[in-house]
Amino acid sequence: MSDGERPRRRFFRLPWRGARQIREQIEDELRFHLDARVDALVALGLPREAARARAMREFGDIDDARRFLRGVDRDIEAARRRRDIVQDLQQDVVYAARQLAKAPAFTLAVLITLALGIGDRFSNRNPPVGHQDEASTTPPTVRKRDAPFRVRTLGRARADPPRA
User: Which of 18, 22, 81, 156 has the fewest CB atoms within 10 Å around its CB?
Assistant: First the structure.
């Protein structure tokens, strides 16, 4: 690949290979290599059955080869999935940065809002209240007959305290 070329991504990719597809591809690959060795031995003059038996002996434990190849394919698929996720995240971040660069006023407003919100959250663990012991995070309990009307907050109705 030259300097100017980028790897081409397929426009649409079907879901990653599943266990069945991996198993089928391994079987095809093993069959191809065995058949190629049998053909080479037949070309040397051995009968087909003797060539097949010799190729199987030379190949070794085929079940061990299947297990090894299955593990390698699983690792390859996991790496491909991670790479695709990272590439998608990278594209999203680049797009977001490009959109924020198009609207500098909005970007500045967002950054200031985030900075103030995060800074306030970490600098003021306790809100500035004159009498800390009197501060309450829950509204006072109001009896139903004292409430002039009802207000909905956080999905639950509560009575608004009467005005003095």
Answer: 156
Contact by Cβ (8 Å): 76, 22: no
Angular region, 155: left φ>0, alpha ψ -120 to 50, beta rest: left
Of 53, 52, 26, 58, whose CA–CA distance to 39 is shortest? Answer: 52
pLDDT at residue number 120: 76
Q: For the stretch 108-137, what's the b/e string if a residue is b when 16 or more beta carbons lie within 10 angstroms of its beta carbon? A: eeeeeeeeeeeeeeeeeeeeeeeeeeeeee
Q: How far is CA 80 from the centre of its chain?
A: 12
39-50 pLDDT, tens digit each: 999 999 999 999
Query: Counting Cβ atoms within 10 Å, is residue 60 exposed (0-12), middle (13-18) or buried (19+)?
Result: exposed
| Three-point CA angle 143, 148, 149, nearest 5° | 95
Dig out the tokens for 139 from the structure. Answer: 């509204």
